[in-house]
Amino acid sequence: MLGTTLLLALAEIRRHLLRSFLTTIGIIIGVSAVITMVTLGNGATASIKEQISALGSNVFIVFPQQVDDSRQPRPLDLDDITAVREQIAGVKSVAGEVSTSVKAVHNGQDWNSKVEGVSGAFMDARGIGMDEGRRFSAAEEAAGANVCIIGPKVYQEIFVTDASPIGERLRLNDVSCVVIGMFHTRANGGQGQDDDNSVFMPIKNVQRRFIGSDSIGYMVISYDPAYDSGTMQDALIGLLRERRRLQEGQPNDFNVLDTAQVNDAVSSAVGVLTAMVSAIASISLLVGGVGIMNIMLVSVTERTREIGIRLAIGALAREVRLQFLTEAVVLCCFGGLVGIVLGFVFSFAAAKAIDIPFVFSPFINVLSFVISALIGVVFGYFPARRAAALDPIEALRHE
Predict the structure, then answer these.
(1) What is the pLDDT of residues 323-361, one digit of tens each?
(2) Considering only CA atoms, which of 186, 213, 216, 206 is closest in space to residue 102?
(3) Same domain, yes or no: 281 and 388
(4) pLDDT score recorded for residue 115
C-alpha cells in the first residue's frame, strides 16, 4: 500500500510540476541557508583556530603595553626570560623574539622582508617545523653566529626554484649570513602580515647587528597543560610586576595572552553567532511549511470529487489521509534535497570567496533533510486529516 500511495503522490506532484516546485521554494531557501551558515561558521572557526595555533598551543605570550601616552612602553629583556624560567612552576620553555624590517638580497635579487631573532625554544613553543636543513645549534645561539633560516616566501621570491638554498649566502641589509635551513609555512599573522616572509637568525645576532640593544619584542612561554593556566598566569603577572617595580594600584605595562583561553573564547563566540544566524535562517523553513499546508488545502478542495469517489468505492479514511500526507512529505523531501545541493554549492563558493576552509558537515546535511521530512508530516497532517474526514455523499456533489 505504501508503494502505491507513493506512486500516486509522485503522479499528482508531476501533474502540477511548476506549482509543486514553487511550493517548495521556502523549504529550499531555508535548508540551503542553514547549511550555508553552519558550514561558513565551521570554516571561520577552523580558520581562527589555525591562526591561533600558529602562536602555539598551551602558550603565554607576553608583550609590553603602553599605559602612558608620554613615554614608550618599557621593553622586556633576556633577564626576564631567565627569571620566568627559574621562578614559575609548570614552565616548559621560555623564549624571546625581536624583529625588524630588512631588505634581503641574493644573487642580485632583492626583496623586502623581516628578520626575526629567535632560538630553538621559540620555534618549539610556536610549533614551527622545518621543511629543509636544520635549526640553530646551541653554540650558534650563544655566539650569535651569522647563520639564518629562511621562510618559504623569501625562498620563492629570491632563490632559484627547485634548487636547495642550504649553504647559500644571503645578505640582510649589510649583514651577510649562511642559509642553514627553511622553516615550514606558517599561518598568516595579524594586521596583514605574512609570517612566511621572514628570516630567522640567532636572537643575540639580531640584537647586536640590527637592533642595537638587548631588549626583546615579546616573550613566548610554553607551559605544561597539567598545571592550572589561571594560577600560572597570576604568578607570571606577579613576577613581572615585581621585576618592573610596579606599585600596588599601578596598571600593568605589559600584557599576557593565553592562547588556550583565546581559542576557547573565539570558538564559543563563533559557535553562538553561527547558531543565531542559523536560527534566523531556519525561519524560512516554517514559512515553507505554511506554504506546504496552504497548497495541500487547495489540493484537497480541487480534488474533493476525486476523494468522494475513492471513499464511495471502499477506500478507507486512513488511506486517503496517508496519500495526502505522503504528497506533503515528498514535496518537503524534494525541497530538502534541492536545498542541500544548493547549500553545498553556495557554502563552497562563499568559503573560497572569503578565503576560509570549506568544512563539510554530514550531520547538518542529514539533520536538514530529516527536519524537511518532519515539516511535511507536521504541516501536511491537517490537510490530510481534512481530506479523510470528508463525507463521501457531500464530496460527490461537489463541483
Answers:
(1) 888 888 888 888 889 999 999 999 999 999 988 888 888
(2) 206
(3) yes
(4) 94
- Would residue 68 count as lying in a domain? no
**How far apart (Å, rounded) are the C-alpha atoms in residues 102 and 295?**
70
Alpha-carbon gap, residue 240 to 238, rounded angstroms: 6
Instruction: Looking at the structure, tell me whether residues 237 and 90 fall in a common domain.
Output: yes
Model confidence pLDDT, tens digit, residues 165-215: 999 999 999 999 999 999 998 765 544 567 889 999 999 999 999 998 888
Q: Would you say 330 and 369 are in contact if contact means Cβ atoms under 8 Å apart?
A: no
Domain of 392 in residue numbering reads as: 2-50+267-397
What is the dihedral angle through the alpha carbons of 211, 213, 217, 221, rounded to the nearest 10 degrees? 130
Q: Domain for residue 70, yes or no?
A: no
Q: Which residues of the chain have pLDDT under 50?
A: 190-191
Is 201 in the same domain as 140?
yes
CB atoms within 10 A of CB 302: 11
Give yes or no for a contact between 350 and 387, defined as CB atoms under 8 angstroms apart: no
Q: Which three cell numbers stand for residue 4?
A: 502505491
- Cα atoms in the 13 Å half-sphere on the side-chain side of 310: 18
Whole-prediction pTM: 0.63
CA–CA dist 107, 102 (Å, integer) = 16
